[in-house]
Design goal:
Low-confidence stretches: 1-34
Number of strands: 8
Oligomer: single chain
Distance between the termini: 57 Å
Radius of gyration: 20 Å
Helix content: 25-40%
Order of helices and strands: HHEHEEEHEHEHHHEHEHH
Mean pLDDT: 87
CATH architecture: 3-Layer(aba) Sandwich
GO molecular function, one term: hydrolase activity
Keywords: Hydrolase, Membrane, Transmembrane, Transmembrane helix
CATH superfamily: Alpha/Beta hydrolase fold, catalytic domain
């Protein structure tokens, strides 16, 4: 009987220790400084962990460009659950994936949650600079974050921003809003104050920030005319603008397209950084 108790207790401790290990960030990692510049992937409206998951899988396993190292699950109250992966492989390109459980929140609220993720990366891992990749509303959230969170003593500096299918001027489809009724949908209307605020605060965009904007002529959600709105926020000298002329390439297909993959990792220079790291 005593033997069974001891074995049962040991199994319980092992199992609970394994689960705890998913959420706990070891003390050793807290002291790590000067990591390679991480790239943070921000999903869009109604997005989940799967939204950019395939892109991250391709970047990691097909192209061998880096490692998905951190997943942040953000509660509707802004509480962070941190899943720490590949914690001994920070010399490779590091990919970070925030997942917002309230995926229909406003642009402003989601940017605030993104700021909490960034602050945690700064405080816990000493991250000084990041790249941002945002799909659809994730691109708008990323711009909102950049315009409003520039205290680099608390947040990392954004080095490069790539936005994919981001409707800067809103969604030109009245039928879309007959189906969607929530704060995010309100912000995505062409006349919303949230989109006007992005344009009004354009002077807050740092001069050193490089921006890539990708759209498709086949996107019926973020139409080319709306994608074009990035030019009213980002100076031409900082902007790389790519419009894929393909009537079959729709909104959700953008983050599944290998042409988009190539544009992003070339813009972020992931291959060059990986080759440099290998030589070191």
């Amino acid at each position: 009987m005593q033997f069974k108790y001891i074995v049962g207790t040991a199994v319980f401790l092992i199992l609970t220790g394994s689960v705890f290990g998913l959420l706990y960030v070891p003390e050793s990692t807290k002291s790590e400084k000067n990591m390679e510049v991480p790239t943070v992937f921000v999903h869009g409206y109604k997005g989940t962990e799967n939204s950019l998951g395939n892109m991250l899988e391709r970047f990691e396993h097909t192209y061998n460009l880096g490692k998905r190292s951190l997943v942040y699950k953000v509660s509707p109250a802004g509480k962070l659950d941190v899943y720490h992966l590949n914690n001994r492989e920070h010399t490779a390109n590091m990919f970070v994936q925030p997942v917002f459980k309230n995926n229909r929140a406003s642009i402003e609220d989601t940017a605030e949650w993104l700021a909490k993720v960034m602050a945690h990366m700064k405080e816990t891992f000493g991250v000084k600079r990041v790249n941002l990749v945002g799909h659809s509303m994730g691109g708008l959230v990323s711009i909102e974050y950049i315009e409003n969170y520039q205290d680099y003593s608390h947040y990392p500096e954004v080095k490069k921003l790539a936005v994919i299918g981001s409707p800067i001027n809103g969604i030109y489809n009245e039928g879309y809003f007959k189906l969607h009724h929530d704060p995010a949908a309100e912000d995505l209307k062409p006349d919303s104050y949230a989109l006007k605020r992005l344009r009004l605060n354009k002077n807050a965009i740092p001069d050193h920030l490089d921006v890539l904007s990708i759209g498709s002529t086949g996107d019926s959600v973020a139409r080319p005319k709306s994608i074009e709105g990035i030019r009213k926020i980002v100076d031409e000298g900082q902007l790389t603008y790519k419009m894929i002329k393909d009537p079959t390439l729709g909104h959700s297909a953008l983050h599944e397209d290998t042409r988009v993959d190539k544009m992003i990792y070339s813009f972020l220079q992931l291959q060059k950084r990986l080759e440099r790291t290998a030589k070191d």
